[in-house]
Amino acid sequence: MSCIEQMKYKLLLERTSFREAREYIEKNSDEVYYVDPGYKIFKDYYIIGVPPIAMGVKGMELIFTYVKPCHGTFVMALESEEEISRLREREREKVKASLTKGGQKKKAEAAPPSFQDMWKK
Amino acid sequence: MIKSNGKALLVMGCPEVPVQTSIVLYLSNKLQKAGFHVTIAGTDAALKLMKVSDPEGYYIKDTVDLDQCIADLAEKRYDFDLCFVFMHSDAGMAYGATMSAISKAKVYAVIFGKNAEALAETIEYPAEKIVAKATHNPTPLKNKIDKVIL
After folding, report:
1. Which of A33, A67, B75, B123 has CA atoms 20 to 30 A from the CA of A20?
2. What ipTM was estimated for this complex?
3. Blockwise average pLDDT, block size 10, chain A, 121 residues
4. Closest CA to A66 of A42, A30, A90, A83
5. Does residue B32 sit at the A interface (CB-CB below 8 Å)?
6. Is pTM, for the whole model, over 0.80?
7. How far is A28 from chain B (nearest CA, A)?
8. A interface toward B at CB cutoff 8 Å?
9. Helix or strand holding residue B73 (H, E)
């Protein structure tokens, strides 16, 4: 049993399919991030699911999927500043990494500085 | 029959469909005869069903709690050459996707139950599908497995 089950979580969706859970998170979160299966949250829960796995942030709450073999997929919300900042930081690192890989950085540098400049071209 | 010294993982889903227990025992025996070291992962209930069925441990050698197995694979503490994920529901399909993402093993999705064909169509991750509409009678699934693992 994961430590999540001992925490004060809110159940937003119960015994649903993984696809419906993902759509719910995408529609009902202020921010949406995507992680791979096996992404670890709250000390000992490794996210299970079909990639891309959506994780949402709404206010101070992290919204995520929780899959149980006999009960299907649940969407849960838990307050966690730490997990939210880790998710945001991870996203920043991903963007940085994609920019330093070359292609996109060059493209970004070559892009017109403003919409008006782009229009002139 | 294929011969190997490799490691195989059998991942059980919810044990509510009867064919799962017998097919896992059958496949474990078949893989062991082919030289694989077999580990069976499952929930507490699924593993208890197996252990009661094989009290002397003829077919079951190693078992691991499903959540622990996912943690170990995600942390790269160990890995397998073959991974058979048993599924008859959307949750099982999600576990299969997870195995496909966190393990380097060749993944087989063993799909059974009333909605086996429909469930098989939802699988888009890399996995060889073994599909049979079997709930109480394991023979159709056994025959499909025999075609893949001779």
Report:
1. B75
2. 0.89
3. 82 96 98 97 94 96 96 96 96 89 55 47 41
4. A42
5. no
6. yes
7. 22
8. 1-2, 17-19, 36-38, 40, 44, 46, 48-51, 67-73
9. helix B66-74
